[in-house]
């Protein structure tokens, strides 16, 4: 039994099919790089916004409490009374588990690094007021470094997990707080760890797409920054002496 082809109809030849596939492949070679580039630009814009958001959060915290705090504390909830469920995002745990260092807004950084910073305890009245009268949270980031394979807050937070509750940049690395003396580590201490940049003010920094930052179980920061050209940062502090940013 033979099939009768209707008038005006014909099949697609192999040549035509190959031409269509070639056109699709050509469009893909053009569209994919454009898409990837647009996605990378979006990450840069996000990082530019977020370094400023973190700097503003530190400024507000400094105005309300007289101290700049570790970035891991900026999302902490206010002091919780007894018998309340524990959470990493809780200043009570930040003190009980981490006892972080504070950066006094009224004391030069070099003096604090030399004489020692205040710690989040009841020993100093202003720090005690910060703890019991905490006005945060000051940020609401959705990306946090909680260690490899940790995607939710641990049920029983410990100092290592609290220290890792760090806001991440769009490339998955923790944002950094810098001073003229070095990096501020996860528990707020001003270290002597330096980068290729020279900062003369408090700074919020993203190392950009080529950077790599990790926080160990002991709260130590490891930094790899092969190229500083793609870094993104904003200065804060010093009550508006300068407000420049670098993108």
General description of the model:
There is one protein chain. By secondary structure, this protein is α+β, with helices and mostly antiparallel strands. It has one domain. It is built from five helices and eleven strands; from the N terminus they run H-E-H-E-H-H-E-H-E-E-E-E-E-E-E-E. A five-stranded antiparallel β-sheet has the order 6-5-7-10-11.
SSE layout and pairings?
Blueprint: H1 14-65, E1 67-68, H2 91-98, E2 103-104, H3 109-115, H4 125-132, E3 144-145, H5 159-164, E4 166-167, E5 176-178, E6 183-184, E7 202-206, E8 212-215, E9 221-224, E10 232-236, E11 245-246
Antiparallel strand pairs: 1-2, 3-4, 5-6, 5-7, 7-10, 8-9, 10-11
Order of helices and strands: HEHEHHEHEEEEEEEE
Flag low-confidence runs.
239-247
Number of spatially distinct domains: 1
Helix content: 25-40%
Largest sheet: 5 strands, antiparallel
Number of helices: 5
Distance between the termini: 74 Å
User: What value does the Rg take, in angstroms?
Assistant: 25 Å
The average pLDDT value, as a whole number, equals: 79
Quick one: how many beta strands? Answer: 11
List keywords for this structure.
247 residues, alpha+beta, two-stranded antiparallel sheet
Briefly summarize what is shown.
The protein has 247 residues and is of the alpha+beta class. It has helices at 14-65, 91-98, 109-115, 125-132, 159-164, and strands spanning 67-68, 103-104, 144-145, 166-167, 176-178, 183-184, 202-206, 212-215, 221-224, 232-236, 245-246.
């Amino acid at each position: 039994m033979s099939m009768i082809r209707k008038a005006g109809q014909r099949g697609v030849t192999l040549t035509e099919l190959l031409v269509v596939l070639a056109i699709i492949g050509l469009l893909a070679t053009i569209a994919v790089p454009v898409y990837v580039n647009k996605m990378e630009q979006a990450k840069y814009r996000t990082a530019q916004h977020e370094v400023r958001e973190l700097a503003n959060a530190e400024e507000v915290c400094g105005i309300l409490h007289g101290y700049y705090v570790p970035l891991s504390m900026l999302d902490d909830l206010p002091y919780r009374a007894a018998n309340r469920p524990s959470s990493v995002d809780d200043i009570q745990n930040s003190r009980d588990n981490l006892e972080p260092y504070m950066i006094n807004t009224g004391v030069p950084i070099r003096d604090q690094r030399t004489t020692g910073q205040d710690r989040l305890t009841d020993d100093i009245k202003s720090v005690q007021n910060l703890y019991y009268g905490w006005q945060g949270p000051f940020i609401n980031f959705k990306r946090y470094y909680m260690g490899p394979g940790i995607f939710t807050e641990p049920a029983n937070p410990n100092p290592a997990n609290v220290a890792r509750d760090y806001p991440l940049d769009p490339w998955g690395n923790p944002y950094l707080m810098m001073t003229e003396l070095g990096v501020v580590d996860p528990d707020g201490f001003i270290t002597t760890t330096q980068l290729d940049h020279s900062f003369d003010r408090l700074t919020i920094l993203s190392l950009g797409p080529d950077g790599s930052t990790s926080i160990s179980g002991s709260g130590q920061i490891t930094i790899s920054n092969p190229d500083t050209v793609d870094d993104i940062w904003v200065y804060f502090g010093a009550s508006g002496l300068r407000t420049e940013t670098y993108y």
